[in-house]
Structures
1.
Amino acid sequence: MIDTHTHVHDRAFDEDRDAMLARAHNAGVDRIVTVGCDLDDSRRACAVAEADDLVATIGIHPHEAKDAPADLPAAFDALRERYGERIVAVGETGLDYHYDHSPRAVQRAVLATQLAYARERGLPLVFHQREAHDDFVAALRAGFDGATQRGIVHCFTGTTEQAQLFVGEFGLLLGIGGVLTFKTAQGLREAVAAVGLDALVLETDCPYLAPVPYRGQRNEPAYVAATARTLAEVLGVDLATVVARTDANARGVFGLRV
């Protein structure tokens, strides 16, 4: 299995990172993407990825947009020069109007910069969107070319209509994590069923959002198997099919070798 969205470089794992990664391997997780959320965090993601044979993304989360470097392309280029193919995408980038930790206009500007950077460098994107759907769609229509670019709407928890729009208009994949297992997530299960397996990838977003039966604990990549089992039940297919198809989707978007 491929866990397409983690933060295993987070300090929450500093005391037991090796043991956590061993548990992931024993659970069948053979590829982990660790996701950067600001410039320093992206550096840390890359360093941990290099040390532990993972892959990483580099990005400015909307919460951190207010502190983005003035020359973001140069900062990203420097990381790519240092870590090379270890970096597989731009993100986590997007819009978050729930907390407004950064002004909305600044979030939109930093998202636009990252969209342009990814387009010019031929890199896929990892998106975060919360309570900003209309502005997020407008940003995609202005700066994302679905014919030539690839991307994932991470931690998708939206409606069937939103799922169909992201998949149908933009060709994006939806990152499905532990929320799928929650009793309150019937709307998400319906959205997943509507778009089908070829539009989905698996993720944990660890250390956050642990699935049932681990809810309330620190999440980790080994737990992606619980989400995979729930997804198999929702779609009425066997677990092996879920793993094979979501892994193929992940390899396609990130350019990962088998």
Note: Residues 104-121 form the longest helix (18 residues).
2.
Amino acid sequence: MRGILAVESTSRSNKDTMRNTKPLCLLAFLSLAVSASPCLGQQRIFDWRPGNDESVRLDPANYHAGLTYHTLGNGGNIQVDIKSEEPVTIFLANAEEWNAALKNPEALANLRQLCPREHVVETRFTCFVPPEPMTLVVHDERNSLEPAVFTGLGAVLNSHDKAERAVGEGIAAVFTGQGSVTRRFNAPNDVRIQYFRWDCVENCIQPAFQWFNQVKEKYELTSFLKVYGGFTPDHDSDQISIKIKSPVPMIVAMLPSQVADQLHGRPDTLESALEKNSCQQRGVQSLEFQCTFNVADGPQSLIVVPEPTVNVPSHKKAEIAMQVVKCIANCALLESRK
């Protein structure tokens, strides 16, 4: 079972939370604050990898509560290997309902079960977890000799986080595997639980990119050409985003800086300069658009000017803004991929 579906456990305290100011590609990729663009280089490859594990000892009819999962977005897949000496039932339960049932054991019989698997001795348990806290529950299927409705929880024989897992009167505490189990079991059933995580296995280190403001100005309109220089692509498929807002139709374009600089002295050459240029918009008043450049394109300049056929009104202002993408981390990988 596969899928880029993030699943978190309550036993993990380190959470990466990053944000991104603007997506680098039209296809969204859960963009991160300092986000590695999926549009460049080799794509990350993900697969299931072993995570935490634990060994649990159960008496007949005992329950064991494993990890509680908190999925991101609309939910995600989990994968767990279970190996038991005696048959057990495995399922996921709403975490709040499970905790409430521990206080009122009669409710265990009516506990909602997600992805139940019965008579398990050895299996790979998979389930799609909804976007709500869900707890993995293992139940020993053997009948208890005790008349009580709820015979209790099993004992964890080893635990990586060494957290207290036993709940309720007479329930054994967590053991680290180095000491002896002080609880006396009538008919022990040892269960091995191996959790898995969906993780990157290849091409995991990627260049990281971020949007930066290059131009942002509100100026009084004139018929003269405005030129904003200083943009040089630092990687192939480098992106820019241009936004214009004006009371009159405008010409907005990116030109090689050498060509743009010559327009000041020879404004009559503008039309010929635009003929072979793909990054341009004509007659626009309110628009945001994007262009892509390669390193070989060299330095570029943004030009803005009213269309030659319009009358420029007095004391009116236009707004122009440009953002550029720059590599901010692991940039040497860009060179190795050429």
Note: The helical segments are 95-103, 257-262, 270-275, 332-336.
